[in-house]
Amino acid sequence: MTIEQTSIRLPVELFLQIIPYLYNHTSPREEWDFSYPSETRGRISPSLLACSLVCHTWNDICRPLIFRSIHVDCNESVARSSLDFLHFTAPHLCKDILGLHLDLSTETTEVPQWIDVCLGRFTKLRELELRYWSDVESISRASLLRGITSMLAGASLKRLALVDWARSANNPKDLLLILSACSATLEYLMIDSLPRGSSHTTPIVPSVVRMEALRRIELYKFPTPFTRSITIECPNLETFAISCNEQVPWELPSWIPERIPKLELQSTYRYTLLQFRWPIYPSSLTIQLMPFGITWPPDDFLALLPFFDCLRHLTIKVFSSVRALQPPFPESTHYDALCHLLQSLQRPTLLKRIIITVENRAPTPLEGDELEGIRVRENARLEKAFAPFLKSGTLSVQVVLLHWGESGREVLVRCGT
265: helix, coil or strand? Predict the structure, then answer.
């Protein structure tokens, strides 16, 4: 009996378990097949590509993973982009695509008549990212908008990211149409580079879109005009994150649920006055200090928060400069001031946990004795500043030192209780 006669064919179910591992496996960076944005597929494991060539059965298993997320660059025209390939050559691939990243530009001047039909095939789309929307000429943008809204009407979109959405112009009508098309299923919304406000002071009646599935919203750069022109009814929102680039007083939108669980505030300026014109009572607050060298919120910022006595979790994130040799830990006076603020509240604080993260972006991470010295020093400072609460066991305070390395963020030191 030959070897061929005694060989056993493994069941397809086994390959269905093995091949997805190749998709999720983290290989060394140099082993990946990196694709430039103008190509259809993204970075795919070479092993996964090799498996797709073994036989038809393996190809059927690998293909949905290879084309799970695609990146389409429309720097010249939509007609000559990867969408042309998907529409005419391989329309069957559209049903495998779960994520679409569409890069637009001022050179996107030609939108074909078949765009509605092509995008309409993305029936399983779950994630959509649009870049440089306002750079597209108005005529082309109108045609593209029809295609996108048609696509969203037939899909169950979960995540939407609008990057560099309106660098040169405000497009509230475009945004309203897109949000309305995915309002029933969208869970995550991110809008970056919102436009500056105009000089007109005429009151605007905001357009309303209801999004009951929405769980997280992130707004970046000049959010005030947007929040006044569009009202998002999101009764089940869990997290609202906002970043402001304005050096003038700014405010949170009035449509945020009053009892939202998590609020994340980020300011790129040293002194930016946040106004609270509507009641809001989050149980968790995260403050990101983006200006390098700033190690604590401005004086009285925490004390002026109208909901501070309602907080259960407080996180303060500090980022160091790439040129900094030592992590920028908060001063002892900052810890003392926070403890004094907690003691001065009219009723016992509900705060149960404080986490202060310090992200070190120095070229080389600290090691050995340096890390141990930091751990001992920070533990001593925390125990001294928050002694009244730590002794009673009513409050947990931690300081976490992070380093951004090749494999992402790594925890170097964790101090406190």
Answer: strand
Tens of pLDDT, residue by residue over 242-269, are 887 666 667 788 899 999 999 998 876 5
Nearest C-alpha neighbor of 155 from the set 210, 78, 101, 98: 98
Q: Which long-range contacts (CB under 8 A, 24 or more apart) does 386-394 make?
A: 386/335, 386/339, 388/339, 388/343, 389/339, 389/342, 390/417, 394/352
Residue 272 CB neighbour total at 10 angstroms:
19
From the list 161, 175, 159, the residue with the least C-alpha distance to 231 is 175
Give yes or no for residue 30 having a pLDDT over 50. no
Alpha helix stretches (DSSP H) within 188-267: 224-229
Tell me the DSSP string of 357-399: EEEE--SS---HHHHHHHHHHHHHHHHHHTHHHHHHT--EEEE
Res 34: pLDDT: 33
pLDDT of residue 182: 95
- For residue 359, what are the β-bridge partners? 319, 402
Say how many residues make up the chain.
417
SS3 266: strand
Q: What average pLDDT does range 373-377 have in this prediction?
A: 89
Please state at what angle helix 138-154 crosses helix 172-181, rounded to 10 degrees: 20
Q: Cα–Cα–Cα angle for 36, 40, 46, nearest 5°?
A: 75
Which residues, other chains included, contact 196 with Cβ-Cβ below 8 Å and sequence gap of 6+?
A: 222, 225
Mean pLDDT of the chain: 79
How far is residue 190's CA from residue 351's CA, in Å, rounded to a whole number? 29
Residue closest to 69 by CA, chosen among 101, 91, 37, 38: 101
**Contact by Cβ (8 Å): 191, 165:** yes
- Paired with 220 in beta bridges are 243
160, containing H or E segment: strand 159-163
Instruction: Judge whether residue 136 has pLDDT over 60.
Output: yes
* Residue 63 CA neighbour count, 13 Å, CB half: 14
Q: Looking at this protein, which amino acid is placed at residue 137?
A: E
The SS3 assignment for 73 reads strand
Other C-beta atoms lying within 10 Å of the C-beta of residue 123? 12
5 to each of 1, 9, 12, 14, how far by Cα in Å? 6, 11, 20, 21
> The tokens of 1 are what?
């009996």
